[in-house]
Every structure is written in structure tokens, then in C-alpha cells.
Amino acid sequence: MHPDARSSWFWIPHPRRAPKFRLVCFAHAGGAATHFSALSTALPPDTELWAAQLPGRFVRHREPPPTSLPELVAQMTDVLRSAADPEVPMALLGQSFGGLLAAEVARQLEPGLPVLALAVLSASPPHLLTSIPAITREEVPDLLLRTDGGAQEILDSAEFRDVVLNRVWTDLELLRQVPVVERPTLRCPVHAIAGTHDSEIGTAEMAQWQQYTESVFTMNELPAPHLIASAHAAELSDIVTELLRADLATCWNNHPVHQTEGR
């Protein structure tokens, strides 16, 4: 792996000297790695957050945006495999579009690189995507207004409006490429976290993530809108921290990779 590969693909807002957990986060459609700044601050000192930086935005704005989901997932999994520390369990967390991206990255990482857990926020599971009407480019502004509290400021900006709308549209197009495969697809625990004020994704939809794991499934709710990570970072940190510690104690050593190593 090129020495700059990890730094270009993942932003680490608070590097830890000796972390016990690594939480790899994937933002919503059009979202940036900086969306997870507050969550990184709220996490305990033993948890290091990595936020995915996709091509075509912010520090990588000169690169063309991804148009192939399989290629994007392959690139991210290659970087994570190369950078993984066997002594530091890695969990994945994704919000909205990022939840589906995180799930596909986790599916490709296993079983060669065990994943401690997958946390999905405000995201429909893959098999429900086919029942959701495709959003046209003209409908993207309305979608932003429904899901992002800061969208009006962006839409009013002559400088940023088109840039952000194009990023969101590109990510939504990638959703059409999410594969619907035989379930369950993951060995790791899956934790669904829903916002009770989310106008787009209901708890009944989120609960169907249970079909995707052979392991533990949990369902949590927060009094939050669609974008939970920024609106309720402290509460989300508490939930995720408790879940990861429980997963480490109950599920991690039962993973086939660890059982093989112990023989």
C-alpha cells in the first residue's frame, strides 16, 4: 500500500496512541468525513475514529467522484486490510447511504479480516432499496431539506449549491448498485440505530437489518432526525461504546478466525 493511501481514504480527527477499538465511519450521501468530528470528540480515549474520505470531495475534491460501487468498495477494503491491526478490533459505522456502504465493505472484509460489529444509522437494508422510488436530480434539493437541518444554507449558497447537489446525486446513483444477496451476509453483530424524528426511514425498516447477521442484533432509538451522528453525538457515543464493549466480551473470541488462531 502506498504510504499516503490510508491518509487519503480515512481522516483520523483524534489519533490514539494505543486504542482498544477502531471505529470506521461512513457518511450520508454527499456527506464529508468532518461530519463525524463531534462523535470522535465524544468517544472515550480508548476508541479511535476513522472517517472515510471519498474521492471528489473536500481534501480529494480534484479527484473524479466514484461511479462504480464495486470498485469503491474494493479500494476501501484493500486500504483497511493493509492498515488493520490484529490487536485492535475494528467496527464499522455508517449513516444513511454510508450504512449501506459500510455493510458492503464489512461483507467484503469478512471472513479474512474479522469485523467486530456493524452499526447502521438511518439506513434501509439492501433488499428494501428496490421498493424505494428512484430520486431524480430535480428532487435532490427537497430530499436535503427533509433530511439535513443545514440544507437551506447550502441551497442558498451560489458557491456550494451545485457542488453539494452533484455529490449527493453521485452517491444516490451508487445506491442503485448495492447488491441484494442471500441473507444472512455477515458474521459480525449488527446494530441498528434509528431516529424517532426521521421522516425517511422508520424503525420497522431498520429492524429488518436483523436478517443480515448470523450473530447478535440490537435495535436502538434516539430522539433524533435523519442525521443522527451530528445531532446526537454524545448519546450515540454512549450507545456505540456500550455495544462494542459487549461485542468484544461475547462475540469476538467466537469468530472462526480467532478460534483457528487459538488452536
Which helices and strands appear, and what pairs or packs with what?
Layout: H1 5-9, E1 10-11, E2 21-26, H2 37-42, E3 47-52, H3 69-83, E4 90-95, H4 97-109, E5 118-121, H5 140-147, H6 151-155, H7 161-175, E6 190-195, H8 203-207, E7 217-222, H9 228-231, H10 233-250, H11 256-261
Parallel strand pairs: 2-3, 2-4, 4-5, 5-6, 6-7
Antiparallel strand pairs: 1-3
Helix pairs in contact: 3-4
Essential attributes:
single chain, 263 residues, alpha/beta, Rossmann fold, 7-stranded mixed sheet, 38% helix, 14% strand, globular, AB_hydrolase_fold, Thioesterase, hydrolase activity
Task: Give an account of the 3D structure.
This protein is α/β, with parallel strands linked by helices and 263 residues long. The chain has one domain (5-261): Alpha/Beta hydrolase fold, catalytic domain (Rossmann fold, 3-Layer(aba) Sandwich), CATH 3.40.50.1820. The chain contains eleven helices and seven strands. The chain has helices spanning 5-9, 37-42, 69-83, 97-109, 140-147, 151-155, 161-175, 203-207, 228-231, 233-250, 256-261, and strands at residues 10-11, 21-26, 47-52, 90-95, 118-121, 190-195, 217-222. Strands 1-3-2-4-5-6-7 form a seven-stranded mixed beta sheet. Strand 2, helix 2 (37-42) and strand 3 form a beta-alpha-beta unit. Helix 3 crosses helix 4 (97-109). The chain is globular. 40% of the residues are buried. The model has no long low-confidence stretch (mean pLDDT 89). Residues 24-244 form the Thioesterase TesA-like domain. GO terms for molecular function: hydrolase activity.
